[in-house]
Amino acid sequence: MNKSTPKIYRTTNWSSYNRALINRGNIAIWFDPATQWYAPSKGKQGRNQTYSDAAIQCCLMIKSLFRLSLRMVTGFVQSLIHLCGLNWIAPDYTTICRRQQHIDIVISYQ
């Protein structure tokens, strides 16, 4: 039984190859200022929710993507908001913990 030797591929365009390797680590995260970060008032008795489901969902997606604890997610999201120049406040880790039990996250694969 002869083992076939694997094909050897040689890189000929090193500048393009290096750019591709660098772009593998590129992370682009942005917040749309038109997104409703804070929950609208429902006009019912009791305290209204401060953050919208979209804000909680954003935090949970980042938690899942980077495998962070809830406290780290709060700091990470707050720093991203600050970098985007938005005047928002990140949800507290206890708020994320309570709300994650009642949110259905739908991830669309492209």
UniProtKB/TrEMBL annotation:
Entries under Pfam families matching the protein: DDE_Tnp_1_5
Xref: InterPro entries: Tn903_transposase (IPR053172), Tnp_DDE_dom (IPR025668)
Boundaries of every Transposase DDE domain copy: 22-110
Protein name: Transposase DDE domain protein
Lineage: Bacteria, Pseudomonadati, Pseudomonadota, Gammaproteobacteria, Moraxellales
